[in-house]
Amino acid sequence: MLIYLISVVSNLTILLLIATQKSLHKPMFYILFSLPLNDLVGITALLPRVLVAIVTQEHTVYYPTCVIQAFLIHMFGGGTVFVLAAMSFDRYLAICKPLRYHSIMTPFTVAGIILLAWGTDFILILVLFLLQLRIRRCRNVIQNMYCSNFALLGLSCGEDTTINNIYGLFITAFMHIITITIQLFSYVQILLACVFYRQSDAKTKALNTCLAQLIVFLIFEFITLFTITTYRFPNVPTTTRMTIGMMTFVISPFLNPFIYGMKTKDIRISFLQVVRKRKLST
To answer: Most confidently modeled of 53-57, 92-96, 102-106?
Structure first.
């Protein structure tokens, strides 16, 4: 419960800082706004329901509620990689093409990037769950602490779910190939630019700007890969598998605000200014 409250407060703090502080009204932070918003969706879709089930020992959930939880959880996973890819592309333009940055990253372009990230994620996940409509349900017990596409397929009447499984693997591969390619391109170009910059302060600024994004990306990818791997080994205890699966939706939303708060200078300065104003007003 404490982890959930800290995650909600810290992510809301980042959202409020970006929304209210004029110094953060920049393309980078407009795109960054989507990350804590996505984190709130992911952790809120998962933890409250799990915590209620643990406290009340009530393990029954209505099917529509289960579908909504599963949909939001999958949206969270896709949203994370798409938003991080959009942020890396923004940093590539800012560092490698500084003279053209503001002419490229107009409000229209920024809105288009954000809509593309969220829209692609929504369409891919929507189709994934629309494929569930062709499956008849004969069971009413899921072998997990939370609902997911895989768990919902387990309620079928033994029907052929090959199409669902293939599409699920396809969108997983598609999301990661596209987003990792964008990020690899962006960060390689940024590193090359740093090598050719003569000013040491420019190198430091470029690396500090991107370090937070790289840390967040690597943490999420490591946890996700670790989780997927456990499902490929049947000898892993079910409880262990479920616990590791929950880590995907807890660790990133919990750590991300602190990573960005510490490593992003503009956010850190804005936060300290707000705190000082509060102290002076009291």
So the answer is: 102-106
Q: What's residue 4's pLDDT?
A: 87
* Contact yes or no for 35/215 (Cβ under 8 A): no
CA dihedral 46, 52, 55, 57 (to 10 degrees): -100
At residue 112's C-alpha, the angle toward residues 110 and 117, to 5°, is 100
Q: Which long-range contacts (CB under 8 A, 24 or more apart) does 135-144 make?
A: 135/159, 135/161, 135/164, 137/63, 142/66, 143/238, 144/242, 144/245
User: Could you tell me if 10 and 258 are in contact, meaning their C-beta atoms sit under 8 angstroms apart?
Assistant: yes
Residue 29 and residue 94: Cα distance in Å, rounded?
13
**Cβ(105)–Cβ(90) under 8 Å?**
yes
Indicate the pTM of the whole model. 0.87
CA distance 28 to 109: 12
Query: If 0-12 CB within 10 Å is exposed, 13-18 middle and 19+ buried, where does residue 192 land?
Result: exposed
Question: pLDDT for 227-252, tens place per residue?
Answer: 767 666 667 676 777 777 777 788 88
Contact 210, 88 (CB under 8 A): yes
- Give the pair of three-digit tokens for residue 213: 């994004």
What is d(CA 3, CA 281) in angstroms, rounded to the nearest whole number? 30
pLDDT 10s digits, 151-177: 888 888 777 788 888 898 899 889 989
CA separation for the pair 248, 262 (Å, rounded): 22
Q: Is the dihedral of CA 173, 176, 178, 184 positive or negative?
A: negative
Dump pLDDT digits (tens) for 186-235.
Answer: 988 888 877 776 555 555 655 666 777 777 778 777 777 777 676 666 67
Q: To the nearest 5 percent, what fractions of the chain are helix, strand and coil?
A: 80, 0, 15
Nearest CA to 81 among 17, 174, 209? 174
